[in-house]
Each structure stands twice: as C-alpha cells, then as structure tokens.
C-alpha cells in the first residue's frame, strides 16, 4: 500500500489559508505520497501548517496567472499521478480510496472527480454538483493553460488525442463559495479582474465568455451575464463543448432573474432538445411555466424531471433537481391549482427524498391553516410522516407551532404519546404537550418563530403587521360563501412572507 501511495502527488497553490489548509491536508492522508505546495505570499501560518504535514513548500510571487502557479508545483512532483486541490476543498472520506485503485490502471490518462460546492453553512443547505478533471498522469508535456479557470485537458489531448479520461464517483467537498468565504477572500473581484485580462488577450475564447458570465451572475449583473452566455453560445461547435449544457442553463437563469419568464422557458426548452437527459433544464421549464401561470405545462415538466431523477454524473447539477427540489416545486404548483391531494403528495414526496428538509413541512402546515383545515393537520402528520425518534417528533411539533398551528402540535404530541408504549417516551411527549397547553413554547425547535413573544421579530421587520394581516384575511376568508372567493384569499395568505427554513 505504501508503494502505491507514492504514485500520487498532491499539488496545490495557496495564500493565507490557515483556516482551511488543515482540513484539506487531513483529507488526503493515506492517499498521496507527497505534497507540493506553491505559496504565493502568505502572511499567516499557512507555510508552517503545510510544513507540519511534511509538504514541500515553494515560495513564489503571485503573477496573476493560476496556470503558471500550478505548473511550478507540477514540475517538482515525483509521483506517477498528479492530484490537485484547493485549500478550501476536502476529499470525501468514503470515496477517496477509489483513487488508489484508479492509479493502478495504465490505460487511464486522467480522472474526473465529482465536486460538491457547498452553498450554505451546513450540508443541508444544498450544493451544486459537477465533474471536474482533478487527477492526471504526470508527464513533462502535461501542463496547465489559462490565466484563470486553468485547464490541463488541452495539453493532455495535444500529447495524446486518444487519451482516456475516466468519470469517477470520488467526491471533493468544496466550501469556497459559501457567502462568508467568498467575502473574506474577495473572490468575485479577483476572478473578474483575471477574466477581463484573459478576454483582452483572447476575445473570441468561448470558455472565458462563459466564465465571466458566471461571475456576472454572482455579482447580480444578470443582463451582462445574459450577453456573455449568448456570445459563448454563438461560438463555433458550441454543442460539442463540455460546458454547453451549463451555458444554456445559465442563459435561462439570467432571463429568470430579469423577469423574462417566457424567454427563460423557451431557452430551457431549446436546451432540453439538445440535452434531453439534463434534469435541471426540465426543472427550469416547470418553474418558468408556473411563473407565467401555465400550470399544466409546468406540471408536465416537473413530472418528467421527477421521472428522470438526478442528472447523470457528466452534468453540472444542483442537489435536489429531479428529487426533493422538484417535488417541492410541484407542491407549490399544486398550491396554485388548489389541489389539496396533490399538495400533500408532493410535499410528502419531497420529505421522502430528504427527511431533514424543512420547507415542505412549513408549506404543508401553512396550506392546511390557510385552507381552514388545521384541525386535520395532526392526524395527517401522524399518518403520513414517520418520525424515528423523539427529537424528530418534537421538530415536527415545532414546525406546527412556528406555522401558527399550536393546537395541532398539542394534538400531535398527545397522539404520539398514546401510540408509543415505552413509558419514558410517553411521559416525555405528554410533558411537552402539557407545556404547550400552558403556553410554554420554549422547549420546542423554532420556538422563536411561534408568534408568542417578541423573538418573532427575527422573522421579519414587519412580523407584527403580517400577523395582523393574517388575522384579518382569515376572518374575511371565513365570511366568504363562494369557493372561488375563499380560494382567492387563501392564495393571498399563502403568498405572504413566512419562515420556511430553506
């Protein structure tokens, strides 16, 4: 095993990464035989940390060129394979041993790993997923190219046009695009400056146009992003580009951000005609169609996305497309159609895909309350949602309270207390139910959103007025006799701001 590990060299470029570097280097233990780090001017403890892991550190000034910096490390590497990571990335513990097996294959030239870009502060907040070439066979001809978003594939194929690139299931967790990290490193400004330099040097480069479009999106410049993606789309041989599916997806997204829903739907449909198995585009068709009131078309697209499931590994996708996100969207569409059976089915489906998900629970509770069916909520939750332990039951009760349905929470806990025979669990659930009866909501999750104390101000600056509006609309809804009038007011209540935990 020790001999096998010598085959893989880890090459990195870093600057002031004392916060992230230990996690990255811990994750490669037992996989790489040597660590080569190019430091471009750290003033913190980065170099000391790297050396404590036995890394060879190359001090180098920053020349505004990622490829040049990476190549300095590659040139010093002695392994048969080069693995390259950033400091804010970590190899997945469960899948990383596969790299040792792939390193044995003499017929492979490069490996594509699955990058999971974590968006929120924890793993439940969602991520984007896409394959990226991150390990390649060491060769003097294999060198990075590109000032930013540097690529190694061009030089590999130039040396060997029949080089075999293998798509793996090995996961890299990337934390660098979390909002706080981006702000700390000023990544947006750095990326934009480098891309502008790259475009000045090569204005017809479609890859640079695509990447600057992505940065425009991150900078909330949707109109500029749209122009960049459309320019990239007009390039010769566009459909054969590895990122063509993303150009189409992001063109649609840019149009969505501009409120041009029909154009956004049309672009997504054009994309689906070229990439029919790309689930994300069908999800976008559903979302855009629903936004223009075309609910039948929206539902058909959502059903197709759910039938397809998560996009194949060769695509850049978002966690939940074709699974829990699409089911949640389907629930929102059913809400607009006032289809109660569909609403329940869709939100329960979303929860089956991802039991820890909060938005479907909040939307289900809010719908039942707005529809005047709060009395049925406890039975529905007990019958349709399986809670494996007391913590899950209390979480569910907390969602009910936070959604303005405290009576349902009490009934649910009493129901569960009667159902379970284990004395300690029964007594604990009964105790929580009694606390709610006495007006004590502090022992439940989301207690701050119960509407029972001033903590709810965390929810919205207008929490007080929202509560008054809810009360007024509920009374008006009850007074209406025609179903269409009741449903119209119900729709307004469902559209009002609320805490969904998304």
Task: Please report the distance between the alpha carbons of the first and last residues.
Answer: 44 Å
Largest sheet: 9 strands, mixed
* Whole-angstrom Rg: 26 Å
CATH topology of one domain: Spore Coat Polysaccharide Biosynthesis Protein SpsA, Chain A
Count of β-strands:
9
CATH class of one domain: Alpha Beta
**Outline:** globular
Helicity level: 40-55%
Assigned CATH architecture of one domain = Alpha-Beta Complex
Strand-pairing-aware structural class: alpha/beta
Low-pLDDT segments, ≥5 res: 450-460
Number of helices: 23
Q: Could you walk me through the main structural features you see in this protein, from its secondary elements to its overall organization?
A:
- The protein is an alpha/beta fold and 502 residues long.
- Among the domains are: 2-183, Alpha-Beta Complex (Spore Coat Polysaccharide Biosynthesis Protein SpsA, Chain A), CATH 3.90.550.10; 358-502, no CATH class.
- Helices cover 52% and strands 11% of the residues.
- It contains 23 helices and 9 strands.
- The chain has helices at 2-5, 21-27, 46-52, 66-76, 98-102, 153-159, 179-185, 187-201, 206-218, 222-233, 244-257, 261-274, 279-291, 295-308, 324-337, 340-353, 359-370, 377-384, 390-402, 406-419, 423-437, 463-479, 483-495; strands at 8-14, 34-39, 56-59, 81-84, 89-91, 110-118, 127-137, 165-174, 317-318.
- Strands 1, 2, 3, 4, 5, 6, 7, 8 and 9 form a 9-stranded mixed β-sheet that branches.
- β6 (110-118) and β7 (127-137) form a beta hairpin.
- α13 (279-291) runs antiparallel to α14 (295-308) and α19 packs antiparallel against α20 (406-419).
- The radius of gyration is 26 Å and the shape is globular.
- The two termini are 44 Å apart.
- Mean pLDDT is 90; it is low at 450-460.
- This is Glycosyltransferase involved in cell wall bisynthesis.
- Keywords: Transferase.
- Residues 9-142 form the Glycosyltransferase 2-like domain.
- One of its GO terms (molecular function) is transferase activity.
- Pfam families: Glycos_transf_2.
């Amino acid at each position: 095993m020790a001999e096998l590990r010598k085959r893989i060299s880890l090459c990195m470029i870093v600057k002031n990464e004392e916060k992230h570097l230990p996690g990255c280097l811990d994750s490669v233990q037992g996989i790489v035989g040597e660590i080569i780090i190019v430091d471009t001017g750290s003033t913190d403890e980065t170099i000391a940390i790297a050396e404590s892991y036995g890394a060879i550190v190359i001090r180098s000034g920053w020349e505004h060129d990622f490829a040049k910096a990476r190549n300095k490390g590659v040139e010093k590497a002695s392994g048969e394979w080069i693995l390259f990571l950033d400091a804010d990335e970590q190899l997945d513990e469960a899948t990383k041993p596969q790299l040792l097996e792939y390193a044995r294959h003499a017929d492979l030239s490069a490996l594509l790993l699955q990058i999971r870009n974590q968006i929120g502060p924890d793993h439940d907040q969602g991520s984007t997923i896409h394959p990226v070439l991150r390990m390649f066979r060491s060769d003097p001809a294999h060198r990075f190219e590109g000032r930013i978003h540097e690529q190694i594939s061009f030089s590999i194929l130039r040396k060997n046009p029949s080089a075999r690139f293998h798509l793996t299931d090995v996961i890299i967790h990337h934390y660098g695009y979390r909002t706080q990290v981006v702000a700390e490193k000023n990544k947006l400004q750095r990326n934009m400056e480098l891309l502008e330099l790259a475009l000045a040097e090569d204005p017809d480069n479609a890859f640079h146009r695509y990447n600057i479009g992505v940065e425009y999106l991150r900078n909330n410049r949707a109109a500029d992003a749209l122009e960049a993606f459309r320019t990239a789309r007009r390039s010769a041989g566009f459909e054969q580009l590895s990122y063509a599916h993303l150009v189409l997806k992001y063109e649609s997204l840019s149009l969505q951000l501009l409120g041009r829903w029909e154009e956004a739907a049309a672009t997504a449909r054009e994309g689906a005609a070229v990439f029919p198995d790309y689930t994300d585009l069908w999800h976008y068709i559903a979302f855009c169609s629903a936004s223009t009131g075309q609910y039948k078309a929206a539902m058909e697209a959502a059903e197709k996305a759910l039938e397809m499931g998560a996009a194949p590994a060769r695509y850049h996708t978002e966690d939940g497309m074709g699974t829990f996100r699409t089911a949640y969207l389907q629930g929102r569409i059913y809400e607009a159609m006032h289809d109660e059976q569909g609403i329940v089915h869709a939100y329960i489906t979303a929860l089956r895909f991802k039991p820890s998900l909060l938005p479907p629970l909040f939307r289900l509770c809010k719908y039942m309350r707005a529809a005047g069916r709060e009395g049925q909520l406890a039975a529905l939750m007990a019958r349709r949602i399986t809670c494996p332990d007391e913590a899950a039951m209390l979480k569910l009760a907390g969602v009910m309270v936070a959604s303005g349905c405290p009576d349902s929470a009490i009934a649910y806990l009493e129901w569960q207390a009667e159902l379970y025979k284990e004395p300690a669990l029964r007594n604990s659930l009964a105790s929580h139910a009694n606390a709610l009866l006495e007006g004590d909501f502090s022992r439940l999750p989301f207690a701050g959103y119960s509407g029972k104390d001033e903590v709810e101000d965390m929810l919205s600056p207008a929490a007080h007025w929202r509560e008054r509006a809810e009360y007024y609309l509920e009374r008006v809804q009850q007074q209406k006799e025609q179903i269409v009038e009741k449903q119209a007011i119900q729709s307004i209540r469902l559209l009002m701001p609320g805490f969904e935990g998304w």
